[in-house]
Design goal:
- The protein has 482 residues and is of the alpha/beta class.
- The protein folds into 4 domains: 169 residues, Rossmann fold (3-Layer(aba) Sandwich); 61 residues, Orthogonal Bundle (Helicase, Ruva Protein, domain 3); 102 residues, Zinc Finger, Delta Prime, domain 3, CATH 1.20.272; 82 residues, GMP Synthetase, Chain A, domain 3.
- 54% of the residues lie in helices and 10% in strands.
- It is built from 24 helices and 10 strands.
- The strands form 3 sheets. The protein has a 5-stranded parallel beta sheet with strand order 2-3-4-1-5, with helices on one face. Strands 8-9-10 form a 3-stranded mixed beta sheet.
- Strand 3, helix 6 and strand 4 form a beta-alpha-beta unit.
- It is elongated and about 105 Å long.
- The termini are far apart.
- The structure holds adenosine-5'-diphosphate, magnesium ion and zinc ion.
- Magnesium ion binds next to helix 3.
């Protein structure tokens, strides 16, 4: 048996099966039942919303052998022929290919004949806006002197291209895109009738991707069933839509968590060279980050991040979302995404608000006298490695140690590592010295520096504090000093 596409097979045959379009359906049903049928309609709306479908149901309602009814029987010869598209009193005219005056003249001649089999002749003029000016004028004449028992339905995706003279003689119905959940239910009904296994989430993804088009959603479903060999899973649907595999997404997120800039850049390079659409990738990442933020707010922690990351996460999501909007209208999205990743480098000093308050803003980078110059150069070279070592240490030794290390001056020598921190923080590190040594794979010397609190220096605010203030649009109200 020939395979029949879902969109065709599941074209609604009654008003009650139509999804969405409540206002259109209700008005038409009332008009039919009260036998107050207008002779000319405009069905306006984007493709795949049911304009043709509803035109046919209306045709059946008027021509069912069991009588005019908003619920035609669907079984009589007329109903069956209308469903098949072979009813002699239903004319489906494609205005895109029959746009001229001659086509409309032929239609006008036809109008004067009585219906062959039914009560009404119905002319469904698809893509009506494509008619030429002459054709519209000829049509207008017919609409002005409506011959009895003829109904005209002008279907169009571009209402503004239908002349006002025509519009004023028709009753216009605007077809609206159905909601994601309506589409989801429609797909679900198809799969349950077909007895095809599916994952609920997969249907949700399909419904979202079809952007309001029911026909598109059904076609996507066809493809998903074929691709998944009869199982509609999230995995096959994502593959179908060109989603980036979950392992890649997870990998990127874990690098993001480590702020491993280099690896994140490499991932974007690789995905692009493998032919993935980076905009799709970025959207997936943003969706997850958003979900993480919500989960952290509600349940304290998400799948990748936890409460302590929330400030970083708000900042990251902020710049990531901006990048997405920008990149979509930019020729080379990769550049924008990579630039955005590089920006993350500048939030690595962002310590948590809680930490700052616990320490009373006393701990300021600028008050530590560090052996600046050499250390800085070396630090730059080893920046990426250093960051990841610090993070590893932090995982074992705790967030406080991470914060202290981030503020410390770390000098990497051949035979040892010298970490210089403020005297009062020295013990914090010394306690975890063995963990620190394990990760640096070298002996570690922890040195304390006395804090010289000259008024001027201590009043210089910490960069991290500035960042937090910027983020929360805050002000420092009290500023404690040791
Ligand atoms: N409102 C709807 N309810 C249910 N199915 C629909 C609806 N709109 C469209 N479809 C599906 O999409 C297919 C195409 O619909 P159609 O009526 O030809 O759209 P249009 O004429 O607006 O482009 C139909 O066969 C049907 O399966
Ligand atoms: Mg159509
Ligand atoms: Zn019937």
């Amino acid at each position: 048996m020939a395979y029949e596409a879902f969109a065709r097979k599941y074209r609604p045959k009654t008003f009650d099966e139509v999804i969405g379009q409540e206002a259109v359906v209700r008005t038409l049903k009332n008009a039919i039942d009260m036998e107050r049928i207008t002779h000319a309609y405009i069905f306006s709306g984007s493709r795949g919303l049911g304009k043709t479908t509803i035109s046919r149901i209306l045709t059946k309602s008027l021509n069912c052998q069991r009588g005019i009814s908003s619920s035609p029987c669907g079984e009589c010869e007329n109903c069956i022929e209308i469903d098949r598209g072979s009813f002699p009193d239903m004319y489906e005219i494609d205005a895109a290919s029959n746009r001229g005056i001659d086509d409309i003249r032929a239609l006008r001649d036809n109008v004067s004949y009585a219906p062959i089999k039914g009560r009404y002749k119905v002319y469904i003029i698809d893509e009506a806006h494509m008619l030429t000016r002459e054709a519209f004028n000829a049509l207008l004449k017919t609409l002005e002197e409506p011959p009895p028992n003829n109904i005209f339905i002008l279907a169009t995706t571009e209402l503004h291209r239908i002349p006002d003279t025509i519009r004023s003689r028709c009753q216009t119905f605007t077809f609206k895109p159905p909601t994601v959940s309506q589409i989801k239910d429609y797909l679900k009904r198809i799969l349950e009738t077909e007895k095809i296994e599916y994952e609920e989430d997969a249907l949700y993804i399909l419904a979202e991707a079809s952007e309001g088009g029911i026909r598109d959603s059904a076609s996507l479903l066809d493809q998903a069933v074929t691709l998944g060999k009869g199982h509609v899973t999230v995995k096959t649907v994502e593959e179908l839509l060109g989603f980036i595999p979950e392992t890649e997404i997870n990998n990127f997120l874990s690098k993001l968590k480590e702020k491993n800039i280099k690896e994140m850049i490499l991932i974007t390079e690789r995905l692009e060279s493998e032919g993935y659409d980076l905009n799709v990738f970025w959207k997936q990442i943003n969706d997850i980050l958003h979900k993480e933020l919500i989960d952290i707010s509600i349940k304290e922690s998400g799948k990748f991040f936890s409460k302590k990351d929330i400030e970083d996460l708000i900042y990251i999501q902020n710049i990531f979302l901006k990048a997405y909007t920008e990149a979509k209208s930019f020729q080379n999205p990769k550049h924008i995404y990579q630039l955005t990743i590089l920006k993350l480098n500048y939030i690595k000093n962002l310590v948590s608000l809680k930490e700052i308050y616990e320490k009373g803003i006393k701990v300021s980078k600028h008050t530590v006298e560090t052996p600046k110059d050499e250390a800085k150069v070396e630090k730059k070279d080893n920046e990426l490695d250093l960051q990841s070592v610090i993070l590893k240490i932090g995982k074992e030794a705790g967030a406080v140690v991470t914060a202290v290390l981030k503020k410390a001056s770390i000098k990497m020598e051949e035979s040892q590592i010298i970490i210089t921190v403020e005297e009062n923080l020295k013990d914090t590190l010394s306690e975890k010295k063995d963990i620190i040594e394990k990760h640096f794979k070298k002996p570690v010397k922890i040195e304390g520096k006395t804090v010289k609190t000259t008024k001027k220096k201590s009043q210089k605010r910490d960069e991290a504090v500035d960042k937090v203030l910027e983020l929360f649009k805050g002000k420092i109200i009290t500023y404690t000093e040791e």
